C-alpha cells in the first residue's frame, strides 16, 4: 500500500491511495467463503456452490466493500496523522483513480480531493470598533407587552358584526362558472381570520358581515399557500386541482377576542398569586423581566455584528469550488449547482466565522466544563419555575431535573455550543472597543434581521 499527498494549492490537495492484492486478498477471500456458506443454487447442496459461481455473483460487490473499508480507514488515518485541517469530507476524484480491471488480483489507485482550511491569525485590538445595541425598555415597549398579555389571556366572544381584527366562521360552497352551487362540489365549514388576509380589498369584504351574510370569494385569496387552503377546505393537498374557481362563503358566527381586563386575576395568572398587587408593580415587573430578556437579545445581535466585522476584516479564503461540490454531493436531497451558488455566500461567511471562533477557542484554551453546563441548566429551570409562579425545588430535586435535561444529547450539545459562543464573545469584548448604543425595540428588530 502506498499513500501520497499532492498539493494543488494552499487550499486544495489530492490524496492517492495505491492498493495491491496483498492489501485486500485475505479479507476478500474470507468474505467470499462466508458468502458461499449462505448461497443456495438449484442442483447444489447449501454451502457447496462452486467458488467460481460465488465470485461471479458476489465477487465485485464484496471486492468493492472491502476496498472501501481499507480506503476509508487509511484515508482518515493519513488526515489525522498529518494533522490536516480539512473542510467537509474527501471527495472521490475520477481523474486520479486508475486500474486496469475491476476484479480481485488487480492493482488499484484511488484519488480523493480534499479542501483545506486557511492558515490565519486572529488579532483583535482597540482599533476594532463593534457596536453593542441595548434595547431601551420605554413606556411604549411596556404598553405593547401588556397588550400582548391581555390578548393571550383574553376570551373569544360572539359579535354581531365583523371588524378588522375578528374571525368569521362559516361554510364554503363551491360554485360553477355561473356562480351557482356546483353539484357534488366541495363544501366545508371553516374559520377565516380577517387580519391574516393579505389583500386589503379582500379583507374589506369581510368587514361588516353578520350572521347569515354571504359573499362570493376565491378561497386562494384568504389562505396562505396550498397547505393552508387544503386544510381550510378539508381536502388533501393533491385534491386542490378540484378546488378551482369561486366559492360562496356564508357567515354562521363572528368571533372577537376580548382582551383580559388589567386586574389582579391577570397579574396572578402571569406572575403567581399576589406577587404583584397593582398596575404600578405589574409594569415594574414587566420592565425588570424585559431588561433581562433583552440582555440575551442584545448579546445575540452583538455576536452577529462581531462575526460580520471580523469576517469582512480578515477576508479569509476558502476552497470554494471544492466546498460547492461537497455540499452538492453530501446533500440528502438533490440540489442544483445554481441553488448552491445562490446560498453559498451566506454559507461561506458562516464557515469563516466558525473557523475564527475555533481558532480563538484553541489558541486561548477556552473550555466549557460539565459543571458549567449543569449550572446553566439549573439556572434555566429556576427561571422557568419563576415564570409559571412555581416555587424552586430543593437542591437535590433541582440537580435531578438538570441531569434529566442533560440526558438529551442534542440539547446538551446546544448548551455547550451556546456557552462556548458566549466565552468567545467575552474574549472579543476584552480585546476590542465595544461601543454601546441604546435603541428602541422596533429599531433593534430591524437591525437584527438586517444582519
Could you give a quick summary of the protein structure above?
By secondary structure, the protein is an alpha+beta fold. Helix content is 49%, strand content 19%.
Keywords:
five-stranded antiparallel β-sheet; 11 strands; 13 helices; Chitinase A, domain 3; single chain; alpha+beta; four-stranded antiparallel β-sheet; Trigger factor, domain 2; Alpha-Beta Plaits; 451 residues
Structural summary, described in words:
- The chain is 49% helix and 19% strand.
- It is an alpha+beta fold.
- The protein has three domains: 2-116, Trigger factor ribosome-binding domain (Alpha-Beta Plaits, 2-Layer Sandwich); 129-140 and 268-450, Trigger factor, domain 2; 155-258, Chitinase A, domain 3 (Roll), CATH 3.10.50.30.
- The strands form three sheets. Strands 6, 7, 8, 9 and 10 form a five-stranded antiparallel beta sheet that branches. A four-stranded antiparallel beta sheet has the order 1-2-4-3.
- Helix 1 crosses helix 2, helix 8 (320-330) crosses helix 9 and helix 10 (370-387) crosses helix 11 (395-406).
- The longest helix is centred in the middle third of the chain and has 36 residues, at 279-314.
- The radius of gyration is 33 Å and the shape is extended.
- The protein starts with a strand and ends with a helix.
- The model has no long low-confidence stretch (mean pLDDT 92).
